[in-house]
Amino acid sequence: MRRREFIAGVGVAAAWPFAAGAQQALTLLLRVDLGADGARVNPPTGSPQHPNLLNPSSAKNGLGYNLATRPPWQVAGVDYYVGIDRAAYPSEADLKDPSIQANLPAGATISGATVRVSGSSDITLEGFDFSLHGGMQVNMDGYAHTLTVSNCNFAVGSNLLRPIEASRPPPGRLFLTRCIIDGGGAQGGIAFADSVGELVYQVLFDATYVWMKNAMADGFRPDSCTGTVSIKYCLFENAAFHTRAHADWLQLFSKPGACHWDDCVFSFNTCLQTNAGKNNLNAFLRLNMQVNNPTISYNTCVATSDANVNYWIEIVEADGDQPSTIVHPVSQYNYMLPDPHDQHYSWSGAVSSYAGGIFNPIINNNVNLLTGEVDKPMSRNRRCGIDACKPQSNVGP
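User: That's the sequence. What structure does it adopt?
Assistant: Structure tokens below.
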């Protein structure tokens, strides 16, 4: 996005009752050149899921809070719709049935409730309803090319299949765009044993304009992979439907030496947690072990006053993770609501339980939606193993 385009975009917040701190935050944001990625590129057609979510009045936003500010950019699920392009597919009835082999492209084969991809070329799955027949799965085992999944509907059902997975990390890559993925947690009464723990599992991916909701536990979990992942312009809504769930919409986690993630980008996403999740959302993003140069910026994270969130952005090396490292994590310009039950949590910080666990974090200029002020990173009663970890102060330049 060119600077003049970004400044023009501030019109969505121009009438906001800014406090002095909010004006300071906006000034900080306007000094940032978002680059070509800053603009939302060709979003899908549809009505935004939560157009009033960032209204300043609690009577209209449904959060139980009056908000002092809002992000000055257009927010996923609030100012524009994410999910299946309704110009191309007005309803799920317009999507194809993936259980019919004739509907599938070359390289995709139906086997039971699973569509397997293979072969020596890229494959595109466009316009399918994988929620049919008890919930179907796309399996990438051994696939070495690019799989594009676009304008598809997924829902965990009686088959208890992860929507997209590989049994071991494939050499290929997933490009996931304009999709809806429902983890099934909101169906009510579901037992932990009758669910899936991750919705997209053990694949490297790029995700844009995805609406992911009702996860029993995790959303994206690319365990045992090495490479990069990115999430942009997505809406994440309600996770943690069981007391045993340790729910993170994204978790990067690995044993030292097993794999690592490099130059990951998580930007312009929205995370909403209501009490429908029933239990604490652990984190929107959890970066834990073997992560290098991740960028987390321009995300909007909100929860209703009766919901609980442990962290929005958790960058952590815990006891037992040694000698794993997280190198140069950057978390800036995110707008977040703190958890009213413990406002030291629900923020963004870098915490290591041992020396050298986190190197050169930059965590600053994140904005509190309740006050409009640039807020402080989270702190915990742990020893900080690095000189740049400064509880209760902004970290980095």
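The chain has two domains: 1-74+179-193+210-223+231-397, 84-178.
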